[in-house]
Amino acid sequence: MDGLNFHIIGDKYSLTDDNKGIEDIVNLENNMSIMDDIMEAIYWFQIFLAPFIPLSIVGIVIYFNNTNCGWLCTLLMIVGVILGVILAERIRRKYGTTTYMGRIKGNSEFIEDKSKDKKESK
Q1: Nearest to residue 79, comparing CAs of 97, 62, 54?
Q2: Residue 16 bridge partners (DSSP)
């Protein structure tokens, strides 16, 4: 296999052609960073929707029962937005949205395994 190079950058391993350089590996890492950012934004939005949707539904039900209470519907939606932003930001800062949603969904790929760290330190 003449012409192939093995590169290690951080914890990433790559096998590249002689014609392709380290720049291609760095571009790949940048693309992964973009994907991570997109997933963080999607999970942030899902967490935001948790208080917003129920409060909006309650506001809409109140509005359809009494159209004079349009201000209450608007108020409940505004409270939903505020609570959604506060909740999503608090989770993002404390746990990270990917880790938090990974724990909820029960997918072990997203959860940092702390038991391995404890075994390695012994």
Answers
A1: 54
A2: 5
Query: How far is CA 122 from each of CA 9, 113, 114, 115, 116, rounded to the nearest angstrom?
Result: 28, 16, 13, 11, 10
The residue to which tokens 């693309």 are assigned = 31
| Reported pTM | 0.62
Q: What is the pLDDT along the chain (122 residues), one digit of tens a residue?
A: 455 555 555 555 555 555 555 555 555 566 667 888 888 999 999 999 999 999 999 999 999 998 888 899 999 999 999 999 999 999 999 998 988 888 887 756 555 655 555 555 55
Contact (Cβ atoms closer than 8 angstroms) between residue 49 and residue 85: no
Rounded CA-CA distance 4/23 in Å is: 15
Question: How far separated are the first and last CA of the chain, in Å rounded?
Answer: 41
